[in-house]
Amino acid sequence: MITIKRILMDYETVQSGIGQMPQFSWELASSERNVKQEAYRLQIAEDEAFETLVFDSGVVASEESAHIAPEGVRLASLTRYFVRVQVKAGGEESGYSETASFLTAILEPDQWKAEFISAETEADAENSKGTYLRKEFQVEKTVKNAYVCVTALGLYNLYLNGKKVGGDEMTPGWTSYHKHLCYQTYEITDLLKNGQNAVGAMLGAGWYKGLMGFLHERNNYGKQTALLAQILIRYEDGTEEVLATDASWKGADSPVLFAEIYDGEIYDARKEIAGWCEAGLDDASWRGVEIVPYKKEVLTAQGAGKPAEMTKLPAQSIFTTPQGDQVIDFGQNLTGWIHVKAAGKTGDVIRLDCFETLDAAGNVYLDNLRGAKESFTYTFGKDGEIEYHPSFTFMGFRYAKIVAFPGEPQTENFTAYAVHSNMRETGTFETSMPELNQLWHNILWGMKGNFLDIPTDCPQRDERLGWTGDAQIFCRTASYLMNTYTFYSKWLKDVAADQTPEGGVPHVVPDLLTPKASIVNDWLLSQGSHSAAAWADVAVINPWTMYLTFGDTKILEEQYGSMKAWIDFMKTHAVDYIWNYKLQFGDWVALDAEEGSYFGATPNDLTCTAYFAYSTGLFVKIAKVLEREADAKEYQELYEKIVKKFQATFFDAEGKMTAQTQTAHIVALYFGLTPEEYKETTVQGLLRLLEKENGHLVTGFVGTPYFCHALSQNGCVKEAYELLLKDDFPSWLYQVKKGATTVWEHWDGLKPDGTMWSPDMNSFNHYAYGAIGEWLFRVAAGLETSEEQPGYKHTVIYPRIGGGLTSVKAEYDSAYGPVGSFWRTEGDLVTLTVKVPVNATAEICLDGAKEVLDADGLDFVVKEGCMSAETGSGVYTIRWKR
User: Fold this and answer.
1) Could you read off the pLDDT of 608-644 as tens digits, one per residue?
2) CB–CB of 289/251 below 8 Å?
3) Using CA atoms, how far apart are residues 733 and 725, in angstroms rounded to an integer?
4) Is 546 helix (H, G, I), strand (E, B) or coil?
5) Interatomic CA distance for residues 409 and 340, integer angstroms
6) What is the distance, to the nearest Å, from the Cα of residue 265 to the centroid of all Cα atoms in its chain?
């Protein structure tokens, strides 16, 4: 029997406020094997009974169950549409699926009636207080449905009749505000009431006007916070009413005396105004608002992926340090905030200072926060019990120092919440080795801690910027862990928006460095605030990774101009196809750097030119996918010239690399830049360099993500596992042995003797080195998507057995359904169970198979030195001897 388990809309189960027709995918289920879809019928309606259809595909003879894009449909703004699908597969017809729905946003720019309004003036540029905004309105007829579209310059929380609208946090997030600003859409039908209503908002400085960046500059985008909100009410009699922010609203200072991203929040409940967002308040003393001019053309609807409280973590213990500080331990390094429940009297104060780790003596360690305070303070406004958490900041922490608290604090007074962009977890991974499982946990929590609206480097110190290099090297791992499509699609719009006119890509996105460079920092201007190899290549590598993961060409189309501009920038600034440009980070924080330096020993000419070739090669593939044949031909010729120059420059006549570093050999091998006749020499050279370090890596940001791949792709699976499973410094498992719950910025952030790396740059939640996660999935578990049929339409399942592990189990929740691999060993006997979703196929390869004992109905043949079989959907268990 064929059934439809779910419908996805742009890879999400929920879309609330989208600006265009989504693409549709559906997951099928069947107890039979080798089931493929033969036909489908997709319907979209304005009502749940599907009596008012706006689209009916009819019966379409097609195997496609993903990336279905209905054409010729004119959607209406602020309208909920209902979706269902029926399929024929395996000779059977399904019933209609359960109904999914999506809500549109404002689809036509001229439908915006609202203006940005502010309770601040430009005289408030130097403060980071919070403000209230409010407006009362009358509802006199029966409401059919109602919606609000809302955003802010700064951060906002919206309330209607005393209740918060939606469950999102830190909205509207951080974008290149003058070029791209997201707005959110919520249904508010159930929050309205007959008679008098009140809408209110609290605003905070956020990324928009608060202190941000290396230069500690304020007002990076503007000098006053502002709200844009537009409510549409539809009545049962067919009439409509629009309520929009305008000069008639009123404003006041809120109890938030101070709130910034780095330094936390100060909240004085004595300044609360009871009923401020409810009808009937006497607001005669409230002040008028200012209209803030702003281009509405940059507004973009955001239907999913908004930050929220995602995971609840109760306090594990409260203890006293040797220095006498009371400290709360939540047992996990995380990003978010703390909910506090307490009883006190008017004027009593709660203050918590958040931090990541204890020093060697077990005391509070704040030095690595640099200038960030990570503190929040609450002052009681009345006698009694309260519950409070910050709203316009976030902290990176495991611990919190109790600076002030009324009474004796207990663990039940404190609950941490991890706050990050709402992404469905898609990947699971488990092995027979607890330390490796903890590493996977750390990688996942490193992602949770640094995917709060943008991909940050770290969540605790006075930085928290969208470093492009970190985002690039972690992208494939991130896309196994969670559904990243919405997250990266949004952020890549800012990558494109912030590119220089020549096509250069900033070091951080949103770009806080380039706009200030010419004004504040002559050194930064001269050295370059954009276009570092591996960092800027995010413009090409991340869209390609999205394509591999989801099989989606839309993101390639959207980012094509950005990708091409970046390749052209490198071409323009290359000298005889050797690319280098101003400030380069190179193999950042590699251990082969000179004493006191963060720059690894691999020459910039080599790493830059390697990435020039790699990104150009990927761009050729993308041009072919999009059938841009002229571009494919032009850039293929460019690619060949770069590779030829790389090989002539960085290999000597005997086939040895001119740079004797691990990273040089790794990128030459993984990027396919090694002459075929020199490949074995290069592999042996890498093994010698590894042996020179007693089997340890000394790589940084450029070499580390690909180290195990460079080994396993070249016949050195044993050495790749040995490298992975090292547990002394430097290694991934060294951090695990030291009690890490996230991935560190430095291999020795906490040194074997208990001392710390220099506090100026020593984050204990820095996901970049967690890029090893993709090797665990792609090689150890053996789940690899196909370039020819991406998005797990076809999967190559080829787990590599090794490392002394007796089992590895992994599963990825693709658009077609779960793809899984579970292998276990008993001596030389291997048992592999694979899962292939309906309407998909796989190639199963048996590592080191000498004799297949149970093929479970599959036909295994020798292919490229490995026993392999092609199969369709189903669950299969194969046993073989190695």
Assistant:
1) 999 999 999 999 999 999 999 999 999 999 999 999 9
2) yes
3) 7
4) helix
5) 10
6) 25
Neighbours of 569 (CB within 10 A): 22
Q: Which tokens in the block code for residue 129? A: 């207080």
Name the token pair of 454. 């943008």
- E-state strands within 270-360: 287-288, 290-291, 299-302, 307-314, 317-320, 326-344, 349-355, 357-358
Q: Which two tokens stand for residue 723?
A: 């490298």
- What average pLDDT does this structure show over 795-809? 98
Structure tokens at 794: 């076809």
| pLDDT tens-digit map of 818-860 | 999 999 999 999 999 999 999 999 999 999 999 999 999 999 9
Residue carrying structure tokens 């990336």: 67
Helix (H, G, I), strand (E, B) or coil at 671: coil
Q: Strand 807-814 to strand 817-826: parallel, antiparallel, or no bridges (unpaired)? A: antiparallel
The 10s digit of each residue's pLDDT in 357-402 is: 999 999 999 999 999 999 999 999 999 999 999 999 999 999 999 9
Q: Are 498 and 176 in contact (CB under 8 A)?
A: yes
Element (H, E) at 377: strand 375-379
Within the chain, what is the greatest distance between any pair of CA atoms?
Answer: 87
Which residues, in sequence order, are CB contacts of 181 under 8 Å at separation 6+? 151, 153, 172, 175, 298, 299, 300
Query: Cα 351 vs. chain centroid, distance in angstroms?
Result: 31
862-868 mean pLDDT: 92
pLDDT digits (tens, 9 = 90+) for 743-756: 999 998 998 888 88
pLDDT of 455 strictly over 70: yes
Q: What is the dihedral of CA 60, 61, 64, 70, to 10 degrees?
A: -20
Identify whether the C-beta of residue 683 lies closer than 8 Å to the C-beta of residue 714: yes
DSSP characters for 592-605? TSPTT--B-SS-HH
Joined tokens for residue 87 = 């399929």
**Closest among 368, 391, 133 to 258, alpha carbons compared:** 391
Q: In the predicted model, what is the mean pLDDT of residues 320-327?
A: 98
Pairing of strands 317-320, 155-160: unpaired
Is there a contact between 337 and 388 (Cβ–Cβ < 8 Å)? no
Q: How many CA atoms lie within 13 A of 881 on its CB side?
A: 3
Q: Residue 684 is inside which H or E element, if any?
A: helix 679-692
User: What distance in Å separates the CA atoms of residue 650 and residue 790, rounded to the nearest whole number?
Assistant: 33
Q: Hey, is 780 helix, strand or coil?
A: helix
Using an 8 Å Cβ cutoff, are 183 and 78 in contact?
Answer: no
SS3 405: coil
Q: 550: exposed, middle or buried (C-beta count within 10 Å: 0-12, 13-18, 19+)?
A: buried
Q: How confident is the model at residue 174 (pLDDT cuts 50, 70, 90)?
A: very high
Which tokens belong to 287?
A: 């002040």
Instruction: Characterize the bridge pairing of strands 357-358 and 364-365.
Output: antiparallel
149 and 18 Cβ atoms separated by less than 8 Å:
no
Query: How many CA atoms are closer than 13 Å to the CA of 709, on its beta-carbon side?
Result: 22
Structure tokens at 510: 């949103």
Alpha helices in 403-460 (DSSP H): 434-450
E strands within 90-142? 92-93, 100-104, 117-118, 131-139
Among residues 157, 181, 187, 160, the alpha carbon closest in space to that of 169 is found at 157
Q: Residue 413: its pLDDT value, please?
A: 98
**Cα separation of 320 and 331, whole Å?**
16
584 contacts 532 by C-beta, under 8 angstroms? yes
Element (H, E) at 60: strand 60-61
846 vs 832: CA distance, rounded Å: 9
Kindly list the catalytic residues. 463, 745
CA-closest candidate to residue 133, choices 12, 289, 336: 289
Cα separation, 726 vs 717, in Å, equals 14
Q: CA-to-CA distance for 268 and 265, rounded, in angstroms?
A: 10
Tokens 């309105």 correspond to 137
